[in-house]
Structure formats: structure tokens, C-alpha cells
Design goal:
Number of strands: 2
Number of helices: 5
Strand content: 5-15%
Number of domains: 1
Largest sheet: 2 strands, parallel
Oligomer: single chain
């Protein structure tokens, strides 16, 4: 599961569809509607908010907005309306880690998009995240690629 801190506009089609599915799974977990993935590290920052379900619905609405912009038909009815706005801290280390991780993925599966994005030094984030100085988040599982 990867719930990107990066703005979904950077994702290729495959990445955006995967993000939508994974965020919906996260919503089910946070609502207590599934037994799997309950302790997945990517859920930590949502669980640490005042209202995790509101936070994931806000996140889903941002992903949905990007999908609509691209002409995709993601089902907006899957987002529970009336969520409150949440701000979540995001460390610069986490943002840089995710950016590098995304670029590595794109280099393999979408070289054209990789080339277009590779010059960006520090990407935009999902609007609900507030960037603060710091290392990669403790909950992140660092993957080492060869």
C-alpha cells in the first residue's frame, strides 16, 4: 500500500488508479470494515489525526479531483461527504524519499514521464500535508533497490 504525500498529478495512469484503490482500502480499514492491513504503516499518519475517517475522505477527494481532471471516471460516491478539513505534518525527508521512490518507478514503467519530472527538485504535495523539516518518517518502510 502506498498513500503518496506527493500531489497525485505526478503519477502516471497506473499509479493514479493504484492510489485510488489503495486509498479506498485504507478507508475501509479506518472504518473498521476489513480485518486485513489494520496495522499497515501507511495508515499511521491518518490514525494520528483527530478523525482518521474524515482525513482519508479528504485524501480521497483530492485523488478524485485529479482523476476528474484527467477524464477518469472514479466513483465519487465512495467518498463520504461532509468530512472536516485536516492538516497532517509531512517531513522534508519523507517528501524527498517518496519523490525518489516515484521517479525510480517511473524510470522503469514510464520513461517519458520520468524524463519530464526528473528535473523537479522538490515536488508539490497533497494539499492536506504541511511540510516541516525532518527525516524520513518513522513509519516508512525503507526499500533498498539495487
Amino acid at each position: 500500500m502506498r498513500l503518496w504525500s506527493l500531489h497525485p498529478g505526478y503519477l502516471d495512469a497506473k499509479g493514479l488508479v493504484a492510489l485510488w484503490r489503495e486509498a479506498l482500502l485504507a478507508k475501509h480499514v479506518l472504518e473498521g470494515k476489513t480485518k486485513g492491513y489494520k496495522n499497515h504503516p501507511q495508515l499511521t499518519r491518518f490514525k494520528n489525526t483527530k478523525d482518521p475517517v474524515h482525513a482519508i475522505n479528504q485524501y480521497l477527494s483530492i485523488v478524485h479531483k485529479e482523476a476528474v481532471k484527467r477524464g477518469y471516471n472514479f466513483d465519487k460516491a465512495k467518498i463520504t461527504p461532509g468530512f472536516s478539513r485536516t492538516k497532517i505534518k509531512l517531513s522534508t525527508g519523507q517528501l524527498k524519499y517518496e519523490w525518489k521512490h516515484l521517479l525510480e518507478k517511473l524510470k522503469e514503467r514510464n520513461p517519458e514521464r520520468f524524463k519530464a519530472l526528473a528535473k523537479i527538485r522538490l515536488p508539490d504535495t497533497v494539499a492536506m500535508f504541511t511540510v516541516t523539516e525532518g527525516a524520513v518518517e518513522d513509519w516508512e518502510i525503507i526499500s533498498v533497490r539495487k
